[in-house]
Structure formats: C-alpha cells, structure tokens
Design goal:
By secondary structure, the protein is of the alpha/beta class. It folds into 4 domains: about 1-110, Fumarate Reductase Iron-sulfur Protein, Chain B, domain 2 (Orthogonal Bundle), CATH 1.10.1060; about 115-170; about 180-315, Glutathione S-transferase Yfyf (Class Pi), Chain A, domain 2 (Up-down Bundle); about 325-440, Rossmann fold, CATH 3.40.50. Helix content is about 50%, strand content about 5%. It is built from 26 helices and 9 strands. The chain has helices at about 1-5, 25-30, 40-45, 55-65, 70-80, 85-90, 95-110, 115-130, 135-150, 150-160, 160-165, 165-170, 205-210, 210-225, 240-245, 250-265, 275-285, 285-290, 295-305, 310-315, 335-340, 345-355, 375-380, 380-395, 410-420, 430-435, and strands at about 190, 195-200, 225-230, 270-275, 305-310, 330, 360, 405, 430. The strands form 2 sheets. The protein has a 5-stranded mixed beta sheet. The chain has a 4-stranded parallel beta sheet with strand order 7-6-8-9, with helices on both faces. Helix 16 crosses helix 19 (about 295-305) and helix 24 packs across helix 25 (about 410-420). It binds iron/sulfur cluster (2 copies). One iron/sulfur cluster binds next to helix 4 and helix 6.
Length: about 450
Amino acid sequence: MNDLIQIEQGCPASNFSAKDRPTWDLYSTCIHCGLCLNHCPTYRVLGTEMDSPRGRIYQVLQVDAGRLPISDSFVTHIDRCLGCLACETACPSGVQYGHIVERARAQIEDHYKRPLLTRLIRWAVYKKILRDFHLLAQSARLLRLYQRSGLQKLARKSGILNLLGVAEIEKLSPEIDSEFFFGEIGMLIPAVGTKRARVAFHAGCIANVAYSSLNYATVRLLSMNGVEVYITPRQRCCGALHAHAGYREDARALARRNIDTMLDGEQHYDAIITNASGCGSNLKQYPDLLGEDKDYVERARVFSAKVKDVTEFLAGIGLVEPQQSCAMKVSYQDPCHLAHAQRVRSAPRELLKAVGAEIIEMPHPDQCCGSAGSYNVTQNELSMEILNAKMDDVESVISAAEVIVTANVGCLLQLTAGAKQRALEVPVKHIVEVLNECYY
Ligand code: SF4
Ligand code: SF4
C-alpha cells in the first residue's frame, strides 16, 4: 500500500500524461488480496503474477509513479489482458479494473512506439475502416472476393498462410455476407400485434457485413414481440474496439455521434437495443468516456440509461407466447461483456426457459472463450489456449446438450472454431437465432 500512498495526481516523474490517466480512486481500491487471480484466464494459462489483474494494476501504478518505463515488457503484459472483467466480478473491494486498463492502453498509445507494420494496421483498422461505414463496406467486399473467388482455397492449400504465420488467424475470419445490413439503417420496422414499446436499434459495425442475418433476426424477434424498431440513421460503430485498443479520442467521437443520432429530435425510445455484449457494455460506459466533456456528459448518462442488451430488454417486457414450443436441451455460455461487464446473467436463461428449453449448465459458463474483440487475432496463441479450456467445458456437456447457445457474435465465432477443431457435432447458436426460430 505504500506505493499507493506515495503516488499523487500530477506527480512530475509520472510516465503518463494527464489526459486519460488512471485516478487515485481507481488505484486505491485494490487491497492486493489476490482473490481475483484464479478468475483471470491469462493468469490461469501463464501462471505469472505480471499476467494477473493484481500484477497488471501494480505495473500500471509503477509506470504512473515513474518507477517503471513504458517498456516492451509492460506493453506485452497489458496487451495480453482480454478485458474480460472476470476480475471485477471476483473482486471483493469493487476495483474498476476495466477503467484502469483502458486508461493504461490510452497512455501506451500516446507514449509507446509499436513496430511500423503494427502501427500501419492499427491506423487502417481503428482510424479508418471502423470509423467509416463506406470503407468498411469496401474492405468487406474485398475480403468476400478473396473468400469466394477461389483465392482462399488456393492460399489454404498452398501453405502460404502457414509460411506467413497467419493460418490460424485466417481460419477465424468471419464469412462475409452476400447482402450487408447497411441498407436497413434508417428503416422503421412496425410492431406485430399490439405495440408494447418503441426502441432504437444499434446495428454494430462488423455485424453489418458479417452477421447481417443476426441483425435481421434481432429486429424480427423484437417486432414479433410487439416492439416497434427504428434502425436509426447516421449511427456508427459504438467505439468499443477503439476504447479497448487505447484510442479513447476516436471512441469519444463515435460516442458523440451515436448520442446525437439517437437522442436528438422528436423521436422517443423506450430503449436503445444491441445484440452484441461488447457494444452494449461500451454504450453503457459513455458517461465514463465523456466524463470530462461538459457538453455531453449529461446526455451520455441519459443515453446509457436507455441501453439494453436484447435479452435484458425482452426478459424485462416478457416474451409474447411463441407460436411453437422450442423444447430442447441447451447449454448457455455467458459472454464476458454481458455477465461481467453488464451483470446480465439471468435474462438469457429466463428467455430460453420461457420458450421451453432446458438448460444444462457447463462447469464454468462465464469463463472467457478467448475471443475478446480482436484478441483472437492479436494474441492468437494465448487466445487458442484459453479457448481450449473453454472447449473442455463444452465437451463435458455435449452428451446432454443439443445446442450450445451464447449471446455475442465474437463468442459465436470462437466457439464455432473450437467445435470445428475438436470435430464436435454440436451446433453453436446465438440466443436470438434460437428464440427467433420459435416465432415461425
Ligand atoms: S483487484 Fe480486487 S481481488 Fe484483485 S487483488 Fe485487487 S482488491 Fe484483490
Ligand atoms: S480483464 Fe480478464 S484477462 Fe484482464 S486481468 Fe481481468 S480477468 Fe485477467
């Protein structure tokens, strides 16, 4: 604790700049008890204190106090964090670890020079493609051409992907849709039957080009449940990937844009709905992101109070009697950003039971699958080891469960890859798909 006491805001020796610096309150909540360690996926795999929540907080503090430089080693340990927030739910002291690591990453982005190629890729992805839906659509079309022209098969057969060291990463790339969801943005979908609510739908970014069927299913499920859905125009990526990668200014710009498009005007919404838990948790974090912006902080509070994961919202209003029973045995995997970041655990289970499903719990349903946004690409090897532990869990229930269900596209992709690696014949589905099938 002495280390904590010695550091003060404005310390001249700090290696951090004032903007996006972790506050004293954030550090001082950690009592170094270590109860979070065994809940941390990277600690479980690597077994090193530096790759545990307590170790990471300690390193951030040392760098902030000017006792450690922002070195390759520091960046490696911070980069290895999944941001799964299992440590937050395990912590008896209420440490807001997510706020610490996000600010540390913003400092790394400002003060550390990554290798040239990495900087170029990060610039293209975070500053360009994910900020501009036109560029995202063009990039997706190029990837679709690669996937469908035979180039992908050729590259896989030739072994060039192995030579370049990207074979495992390439296998995780999502299949690009024939039709993108962008065309639906700006549309109003009426409620079927008696109107029970009116919501704005946040369609995500990658989900528009790689999971448009899931977005269609979400809108349809809401509509079938008496909800009028407005897919608000001019909406943008929620900024979660930017915030997690250290680009907090870009995340702020996207947050302001989403607040403007969904709060302004005559429109009134009972809720702002998302089907991606990473997006949902970031949309709910807008007051923290915009805490210093006096023009937006209050509106960010109003905005985030309306944000609901689709499962949270539907469990709140109750499902309309489905047209058919969906009696089946399912095992539900909690996405980290739904269970740990948003503390939504019972809503998905309640909905599954409401349509007739029986839930077979796996031993550690809220243990990270290793997907974590872009983590399975940037930290592929570690991500695969974390997935391996998850698949042991999945394998232990597949003799009883007919379907593995999750509530986040990243988990869906990762678990599907895991099932394929182990040649398991169990389907992996998003909960929205499962529920939607009960309304035909
Ligand atoms: S983060 Fe929480 S659980 Fe972990 S060492 Fe600090 S106080 Fe203990
Ligand atoms: S966010 Fe997840 S990976 Fe990172 S320190 Fe916490 S438990 Fe470990």
